[in-house]
Design goal:
Blueprint: E1 2-6, H1 11-20, E2 25-28, H2 46-61, E3 65-74, E4 81-82, H3 95-105, E5 113-124, E6 127-139, E7 155-157, H4 169-175, H5 177-190
Parallel strand pairs: 1-2, 1-3
Antiparallel strand pairs: 3-4, 3-5, 5-6, 6-7
This protein binds inosinic acid.
Length: 191
């Protein structure tokens, strides 16, 4: 069986990807390989951060692996918060602080176009591959719904009249940026 490391300890992400991988692949988490340190994420693009995490694991553990990185890109804010989505309102801030900062920055704006973008970086036998998943939508003027995490309450995906935080995790995880990137990666691995 081909062992491959997913550079995360997030059980939800692990379950999501395990579900779509074929049976010949055994997915390992960072914990499974004894990697307990925080992975470096010091680059200024989503692509470079995903690659940095994957390279760290590949170089230290010599195992095939992949890592993901995600950001919310808002058109009128020239792609911000982007790679800084997790700490938009500051290093020690939480999702609520990030949402409030975003709503303030966009106060009165009519162009509310945005997208979530995930990049999955895979290293297989030393070769690097990138897979992108993107979902377009709009930033709402106030929070709607309580499910999910991050910016879910203020993101309305195109084609739906429910925010990510209102639609239920089953549907969100089927259509999300992360699901799209992971499906592309899984299709590649399954081949
Ligand atoms: P990560 O790269 O998956 O850790 O995502 C970075 C940041 O982007 C998170 O801390 C969230 O603020 C935001 N984010 C990523 N994915 C989602 C999502 O599915 N919904 C809402 N926010 C998200």
């Amino acid at each position: 069986m081909h062992k491959i490391v997913f550079a995360t300890n997030n059980v939800h992400k692990m379950a999501e990807v395990s579900d779509i991988l074929c049976s010949g692949i055994k997915l390992l988490s960072l914990k499974d390989i004894g990697c307990f340190e925080e992975l470096p994420e010091t680059q200024n693009t989503i692509d470079a951060n995903a690659l940095q995490k994957a390279r760290y694991v590949y170089e230290k553990f010599s195992m095939d692996c992949f890592a993901d990185d995600t950001g919310l890109e808002v058109e009128i804010l020239k792609g911000a918060p982007g790679v800084y989505s997790a700490r938009y309102a500051g290093e020690d801030c939480n999702s609520e602080n990030n949402i409030q900062k975003l709503l303030l920055e966009m106060d009165g704006e009519t162009n509310r176009n945005a997208c979530f973008r995930t990049v999955a970086a895979l290293i297989l036998d030393g070769k690097e591959y990138l897979f992108e998943g993107k979902i377009s939508g709009r930033i709402l003027t106030e929070k709607h719904g309580t499910d999910g995490f991050g910016y879910d309450p203020v993101f309305l995906p195109d084609g739906y009249d429910l925010s990510f935080a209102q639609m239920g995790m089953e549907l969100k995880n089927r259509i999300s940026h992360r699901a799209l990137a992971m499906k592309k990666l899984s299709t590649f691995l399954n081949k």
